[in-house]
Amino acid sequence: MVNPPNPVNHYLRTDRMPHIWCSGCGLGTTVNCFVRAVEQCGIPLDLISVVSGIGCTGRVAGYLKMDSFHTTHGRPIPFATGLKLANPKLKVVVYSGDGDLFAIGGNHFIHAARRNMDLTIICVNNFTYGMTGGQVTPTTPVDAIATTTPYGNIEEPFNLPHLAESAGAVYVARWTTFHVRQLIKSLREALQKPGFTFVEIISPCPTLYGRRNRLGDGLDMMRFYKENSVIKNGADTREVGLDFKGTIVCGKFVDRERPSYLEAYNAKMAERLGASYQPYQGVL
Amino acid sequence: MDGDHACCEGALSAGCRFVAGYPITPSTEVVERIASRFPSVGGFFIQMEDEIASSIAIQGAVWAGAKAMTVTSGPGFSLMMEHIGLAAMLETPCVFVNVQRGGPSTGLPTLPGQADMMQARWGSHGDYEIIALSPNSPQECYDLTIKAFNLAEEYRVPVMLMMDECVGHMTEKVIIPKAEEIEITERRYTNAKPGEYLPYLADESLVPPMAKAGDGYRFHVTGLTHDERGYPVMSAEAQEKCVRRLVEKIRKNADRIVSCEETDIEDAEVIVVSYGITSRVAIKAIEMAREEGLRVGHLRLITVWPFPERRVRELAERVKAFVMPELNYGQMFFEMQRVIEGKAKSYLVPHGGGTVHDPQVIYQKIKEAAW
């Protein structure tokens, strides 16, 4: 019997399969949810660009059959900024991991959020540097074991939704890879909303985070998400920080309006340069 | 007009419509003028959070179809190194302007240096080739900014415009030709149909045509070693094929890329080789030596990378000595020595930067070389 083709094959570079991700890894689930959100959002596929940094999540760009850019470690956001500003018709998505976006790339994240740059940022947060073998990241919970914190992590992790909201994001949501339907909906909303939109996806890394912290395999971690998540849409983001083995608050936390970077730019230039100013359409 | 402003005008003439930058002395005037000029001509300037961001934002803009550049000085140039490598690897045509100041570290922010010359060539990790130009006047800041964009498009490489504080802040007459008189190299885009396009398939020119985001090619590019499809391939064979072409597309075309200015070379026994602001001091020293009856010629490097290897080698066969003044303790000098291969003597006139040479010092070295 021949299996029917995967319904999302159309969005994937099937000539690059099999992918490099471990069994039990949540990245495939996030990609599945993302392409379904792309399917639903109504944006022509040719106008979507995906930009990744470096790491396991950094490999997402290479598997998506869209204009896709695998850039340098920590810098997908400024690359995406240039892409978007040179052609504002593009829908530019940054798809990267917690280490890439919040350690080496943290400065770019807060500045793009501050500017309300028209970008959708998807952070797959697996609490570890997977590609390099399981080191501590800025989101690793206190007490968790990593190869570079063999006695347990002592650093307070970033609360990503709170950071995003504080820095200026207009849309902030968090789901786990267990919450596929909610995740698809949030990704769709994030893609459709102008300005800086942010979705955090809690995702299992059984090989390098789960096993080392006695969290079991991929299935056990998914079961943990099911049993230890609570959905609180509109929750105060100050209250959604993550503890080691603690409750995971999920939901859409922020959905607010403020002029996006390009809207603000065009308004200012029209005000100062007068009627002769043509709204910026890209450099072409 | 000063050299910094002339650089902005050159970028506009070249068709550059996207600039990302971060303030740093003595380059800031370039981006200040750009910030003021670009909005009314359909261009876009953004001040990024640092030079790392600036040096990759321009590459995003290029892949969306823009001609783009960033502008900086020593410390910022150091921060940009990884993205010079990215531009080399993705073959992103773009321009990096470095208005050089004294270094290392914070060094002399307001005073000149020429000590980033080797960094421009070798600063990013791995093997690659770049092109670098060195203007010696505001007029050349204008002209060579255009040339930098043209070379970037022709060879799909990052091109460095290696200015210095003196040419950046020097005010002289700058002639801006009529638009139709300016030679512009446009980007070469693929004619392939979507689905048939291979981003890194090059013809005999070794330079593959580009695609841009949004045109339906759904292409992929990566800083990883890649094949013609742009897909990562982790093997020694793929590395050889990928990196060899990055190097050869410049080395094999070096004679077409190189540009020098030769003065009084025919009868010369000693040749002063110089570039940038130092060339103007060298001219004075050569005049002094010629008045003394010394047979001295001048080879001014307009392209500093690739180094004019063939020409210097030819000259080394027949002259007694080369003298190179530069605002560092020996950078291009060592490249020149490598090329001369001991066939003529070579004399460095070093200087730590902060000001230009005293022409007397260069003159003395010419006398010593001619002895």
Structural class of chain A: alpha/beta
Globally, the shape of chain A reads globular
Please identify, by name, the CATH architecture of the largest domain in chain B. Answer: 3-Layer(aba) Sandwich
Q: What Rg of chain B, in angstroms, do the CA atoms define? A: 21 Å
CATH architecture of chain A: 3-Layer(aba) Sandwich
SSE series of chain B:
HEHEHEHHEEHEHEHEHHEEHEEHEHEH
Question: Shape of chain B from CA axes?
Answer: globular
Please write the CATH class name of the largest domain in chain B: Alpha Beta
Task: Tally the helices of chain A.
Answer: 10
- Note the quaternary state here: heterodimer
Q: The CATH topology of chain A, please?
A: Rossmann fold
Beta-strand percentage of chain A? 15-25%
- Tell me the helix content of chain B: 25-40%
So, the CATH homologous superfamily of the largest domain in chain B? Thiamin diphosphate (ThDP)-binding fold, Pyr/PP domains
CATH topology of the largest domain in chain B: Rossmann fold
Stretches with pLDDT under 50, minimum 5 residues of chain A: none
Q: What separation lies between the terminal Cα atoms of chain A? A: 51 Å
Number of strands of chain A: 8
Biggest chain-to-chain interface with counts: A-B, 45 and 46 residues
Total count of domains of chain A: 1
Rg of chain A: 19 Å
